[in-house]
């Protein structure tokens, strides 16, 4: 398995190299870049199996580098000191997202995902990365796992402080994700979802009925009951009565 390491900090790229050499003998380090523009030039002509990619870099950050490449078949493992990029990273079909300082067991686990995560024929395409793209599936970082969820199976999402519960039609209990409802809404970027309440994002196709009264509710699949904010009632009724 051929790999390229891209990180503007020499110390960080050295750490990844040492860990890979010591704990992941199947990984052959093809190149190390501490300059994102040099990395872009190289990757425009070469496609390694795996790219370890830092996000916060001068000149060209990790996301912009991938966008400029357009269509690639290399698998991506993002490496960063900042956890706020996790959701965006998985929009880019990253197979993992490692926080610095990188733990050897997490690195080994990420390498294993190279062969266990279902391959994507075309991993990235510039048009698919635009703000108007509507993903068919999303990848959710839950603990030490990456959960693949088909968007069509998502019933609703419920805010729980800085966390979010994601309810799917084939599960007993929701996934608890350490991201906000707004993060999930931006990730889905899909008109079939709407907010009847500040704390809920629901998929219209799973609406079973509306319960009117002083406290209006929407009843979804699995008898999930969602409150409708008073200010949202006219909008919700107009949408669902079409």
Description:
The protein has 242 residues and is α/β, with parallel strands linked by helices. It folds into two domains: 2-124, Response regulator (Rossmann fold, 3-Layer(aba) Sandwich); 149-240, OB fold (Dihydrolipoamide Acetyltransferase, E2P). The protein contains seven helices and 15 strands. The chain has helices at 10-23, 36-43, 62-69, 86-91, 104-116, 181-188, 233-240; strands spanning 2-6, 28-33, 50-54, 75-80, 96-99, 137-142, 145-150, 154-160, 163-168, 175-177, 193-197, 200-203, 207-211, 217-220, 225-227. The strands form four sheets. The protein has a five-stranded parallel β-sheet with strand order 2-1-3-4-5. Helix 2 packs parallel to helix 3. The termini are far apart. 31% of the residues are buried.
């Amino acid at each position: 398995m051929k790999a390229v390491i891209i990180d503007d900090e020499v110390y960080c790229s050295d750490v990844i190299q040492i860990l890979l050499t010591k704990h992941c003998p199947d990984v052959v380090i093809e190149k190390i870049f501490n300059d994102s523009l040099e990395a872009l030039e190289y990757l425009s002509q070469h496609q390694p199996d795996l790219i370890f990619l830092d996000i916060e870099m001068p000149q060209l950050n990790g996301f912009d580098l991938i966008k400029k490449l357009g269509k690639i078949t290399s698998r991506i493992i993002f490496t960063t000191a900042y956890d706020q990029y996790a959701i965006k990273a998985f929009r880019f079909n990253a197979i993992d997202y490692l926080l610095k300082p990188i733990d050897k067991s997490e690195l080994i686990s990420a390498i294993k995902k190279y062969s266990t995560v279902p391959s994507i024929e075309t991993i990235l395409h510039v048009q698919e990365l635009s703000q108007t793209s509507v993903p068919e599936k999303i990848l959710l970082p839950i603990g030490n796992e990456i959960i693949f969820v088909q968007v069509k199976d998502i019933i609703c999402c419920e805010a729980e402080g800085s966390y979010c519960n994601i309810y799917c039609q084939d599960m007993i209990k929701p996934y608890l994700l350490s991201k906000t409802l707004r993060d999930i809404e931006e990730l889905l970027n899909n008109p079939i979802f709407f907010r009847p309440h500040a704390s809920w994002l629901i998929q219209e196709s799973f609406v079973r009925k509306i319960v009117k009264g002083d406290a209006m509710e929407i009843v979804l699949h699995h008898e999930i009951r969602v409150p409708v904010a008073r200010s949202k009632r006219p909008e919700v009724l107009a949408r669902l009565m079409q």
